[in-house]
Prior knowledge:
Strand order of the largest sheet of chain A: 1-2
Oligomer: heterodimer
Largest sheet of chain B: 5 strands, antiparallel
Radius of gyration of chain A: 22 Å
Amino acid sequence: MKSKKASSITSSAVVSLLALTLVAGCATPPAAGDKEAQAEWVQTNDPAEPTNRNLHAFNQGIDDNVLKPMAEGYRDYVPANFRTNIRNVLTNLSEPLVAANDLLQGEFLRAANAIGRFCVNSTFGFLGMGDVAGGGGLEHHDEDFGQTLAVWGVGEGPYIVLPLLGPSNPRDAVGTAVDFVGNPTNWFIPGLPLAASVGKGTVTAVDKREKYLEPLNEVQRTSLDYYASLRSLYRQKRADDIRNGKKGPTMPAPGLAAMDAESTKAAH
Amino acid sequence: MRNGWGGKIFPALLLLGGLLAPLPVLADAASEAKAFVAKLADRAVNQIGRAQVNEEERAERVRSLMSDNFDIPAVARFVTGRVGKMADEAQQKEFQQVFLDYQVHTWAKRFKDYGGQTLEVDAALPPDEAGVISVESRLLDGVGKPPILVTWRVRSGDDKILKTVDIVVEGVSMALTMQSDYRSILQRQGLGGLTKALKEKVEAIRSGKMEVPPLKASTAK
Lengths: 268, 221
């Protein structure tokens, strides 16, 4: 009985998600003659915007009702040092994958750093609960297969919003899938892989949401169009992560001066 | 003979001088930009963050800091894009005013519970093709927390006075993010619609309906 009810809730959620996705479809590109509108369209790079907005609303509903309250509860009821231990364990479990992606990107020093962290923290850090390596100057860094693909020259493609997972693009979506399958810590316990993955996935999601409680609240409160702000933030942050924080020629130049010159010309 | 040598050396010196001359100029521009950011940060910390003044006075100080150091008209033009450009001058002026108000009141609230952060200026990159110099800095927030990387994008206008045109926090440009945020309301309701929406935000901040958390390293990360 119970399972029947649960499955009917799941199926209705799936049906409404499908409906949301199908009803919306694609945005209409601007007329070929309008150069500025065309440039804007290319810059926005979001041809499935109506569908994406619906998926964003769907994700937002789940965030408001489930994930955010869980993250707030987690912060309120779990002491800070426990939360730090949990975050350290999760970070430690991600190190082999970080190291693998570093190697695939030819970043050997960074790979050595991740491997070193994993060895030190898994042993001296009591299964990763303490960040002994970080205290010794081996700072953690993130890396994923989406970034590896970018380093290999794969373009991001259009913006997409994934159900539950949020902002993405075809390149990063493939990256997420490869990371999930390729992560040894996801197939660590052979007997109960599903339960372990779901458990770890939930803890990871809640931990990550807790980390971003303030910044996301701030973005949501200050922006006029939360969807568009998230889209822009996601893209910029990914570009920065791919460059590993280094300044590159791809640094988005607002072109303020160029725009300025144009508008001055227009005024005269 | 003497003539021959002089005839060769003199142009050679000129050529050399011509090659070397732009270098000190570039270095000057970079160090000038670094000094500009350091001075701006110092003024923000000492005259606003650490000053014990009432809300109104704080807002006034933020306003004068912004007017002196930020190219608000240029940023306003950038974030409103082609829709802004098509609007008439009165509408553009009104938007600039409201846009500045919005920044002023947001930052006045952020500075209210100033937590003692300091800004350390690192390096300045040579100007790009648009004449914008990127000044890199780190926002330090006491012990333990990793610093936040802040890049100031500054350039001098026709009056040769340096002004900030964008702030990039950990790779995220404020100008680009605002441009993206404003685009759909601009498309649907024009510059007037955006001005009205921002006015409402300003009112919400002033009346305390919209909370602006104080400046903290963890909130910007």
